Amino acid sequence: MQDHSLPSRKQQHVDLCVNDDVTFRAKTTGLERYELDYDALPEIDLADVTTDISFFGHPCSMPIMITGMTGGYADAERINTMLGEVCDELRIPMGLGSIRAAMVDEAQLPTYASAARPERTFPLVANIGAAQIADWKNTEPRLMHVLDSLGADIVAVHLNPLQELLQPEGEPRFRGVLDGIAALVRGTDRPVIVKEVGAGISGAVARRLVGVGVHGIDVAGAGGTSWAGVEILRRDDGQRMDHLWDVGIPTAECVREVASVLSTVVPRPLLIASGGIMSGTDVAKCIALGADCCGVARPVISAIMNEGVTGAVALLRTLELHLRQWMFLTGSATIADLRHARLRSSA
């Protein structure tokens, strides 16, 4: 019988993402339906192009972050150490996997803290689940202790009702989550991001999140890793749940809808596009659709596991290069300019 303990679950998640095909089967990100409009008269030099952004006041070299992946089991310390080295070298934000394990067992703190060196040059995003936030009274003291211990700059809350529904040890209890998020926003001086894990955040959900004052939304749309698929593969109860493998809103549609909602909000929350981001072209399209930056996860952890820090840095440098090329070809000297680049839809 499969071990369903929290550390074992975290290990299984990484192993499945690296070694198995857990992508969406029939659904894509939707980014292939958009094409950046080529500008034959860009009126800039390639040398003028800069990919620098500010991420909640932290200067970063490109609009790409490594989104939260792992922590809470033995090998996560090694992985997070390497991810931290990548982010240090590139000066990009890093997300941690769910810190619930450290809240339950403080001995797990080093598996996250390996990335949280005081001398780091990048902003660190800690990550906690919606089910824990809903139980705010019991969660608050432990959460704040772990955030302080890690020196986290930003806190993210992940919404994952689909994953919790399918996870063998899942907790599909989401009553009170919005109130819990509101309490977190009031109770911390850290910026609060709300994110999905790969099934997407719609414009309607974004509007409710804005209503409680969140500072950022990571749409984490469909088209990349299917966490429904991951949990379906983990099940050992004989029940096949493949009809839910492809549930989710494509990333491109999430970005378009949420950007429209955020366009009228002052100050405007940060919009992060993730979910199947595989190339610099994907990054450029998401920014032109309205995102401020993009998140990548599975391609980076695959590179880390197979080629180490050097491989992950090379992967992200390639994304940056291709992004800069598209910025030049659309006459966009800055990321702010790229947000106004024209997109043609083939739909």
From TrEMBL:
One of its GO terms (cellular component) is cytoplasm. FMN binds at residues 67-70, 98, 127, 195, 225, 297-298. The keyword Metal-binding applies. Mg(2+) binds at residue 164. It comes from the Bacteria. Its EC number is 5.3.3.2. Substrate binds at residues 9-10, 98-100, 163. InterPro entries: Aldolase_TIM (IPR013785), FMN-dep_DH (IPR000262), IPdP_isomerase (IPR011179). Keywords: Cytoplasm, Flavoprotein, FMN, Isomerase, Isoprene biosynthesis, Magnesium, Metal-binding, NADP. Homooctamer. Dimer of tetramers. HAMAP family: Idi_2. This is Isopentenyl-diphosphate delta-isomerase. It comes from Candidatus Kapaibacterium thiocyanatum. The gene is fni.
